[in-house]
Amino acid sequence: MTVAASTDKPRRSRARSLFETVFVVALAIGLAVGIQAAVAKPYKIPSESMVPTLEVGERVIVDRVSYRFSEPEIGDIVVFQPPVGAEPSHAGRACAVAREPGQACPKAWPERSDGVPFIKRIVAGPGDRLAIRDGHPVVNGVAAEEDFVRGCGGAPDCDLPSEIVIPEGHYFMLGDNRGASLDSRAWGPVPKEWIIGRAFLAYWPLDRIGGL
Fold first, then answer.
1. Which of 9, 44, 89, 120 is catalytic?
2. Catalytic entry in 41, 49, 181, 184
3. Does 22 share its domain with 46?
4. Strands ordered across the beta sheet of 136-139
């Protein structure tokens, strides 16, 4: 009886140790998933619209928390769900209203796309008057200084001199590759509630690591 009791004790100890290991691993995975969902999320750049700031395939970390306590700012790079007007099925009618000649789209479709999120830069916010000159935003009469963007190169929507006013609670998005970006010029300002978060760190590939 003594030998059997002695043999059972190590078995119970090993079983307990295995249980604790499995529990700790499961807890760690659960916390990682929870943190990713609530706090920060990785995002892979799907297109050339943010070149040269972000290359195709580059990966960034998106802060999902700060906009719960503060407003987005001009210059922020954000990940968001676009309006349905940005989908290929809306080609030729991306804007929710008829665009005047020389004018950016002033109003997006009210339905949000459930497709792949977009990443762009905020160039104007609620109440701002906006025109586009050679691909650069002119906000409230002041042209933005943007030495980090790739020039427009005469592509469509490079010059949109007729001002629009950004609706309350909305933000106007442009890709940094101004001549090769489908953005708010075509499908309008985006509501704040469609913004997933601010991209603040590039982490892959390693030679591109750094803050945004």
1. 120
2. 49
3. no
4. 142-143, 136-139, 129-133, 160-165
Instruction: Name 115's Cβ contacts closer than 8 Å, sequence gap at least 6.
Output: 81, 82, 87
What would the pLDDT profile of 32-76 be if each residue is shown by its tens digit? 444 455 578 899 999 999 999 999 999 999 999 999 999 999 999
Tell me: do 33 and 65 sit in the same domain: no
DSSP class of residue 65 equals S
Quote the CA–CA distance of 119 and 52 in Å, as a whole number.
Answer: 13
The number of C-alpha atoms within 13 Å of 156 and in the hemisphere containing its C-beta is 7
CA–CA gap between residue 149 and residue 123 (Å, rounded): 12
pTM attached to this predicted model: 0.82
Active site residue 9: no
Domain total of the chain:
2
In the predicted model, what is the mean pLDDT of the chain? 87
Say how far residue 11 (Cα) sits from the centre of its chain. 52
Q: Domain residues for 8? A: 1-38
Give yes or no: residues 95 and 182 share one domain. Answer: yes
Same domain for 5 and 90: no
107 is catalytic: no
Give the pLDDT confidence score for residue 11 in this predicted structure. Answer: 60
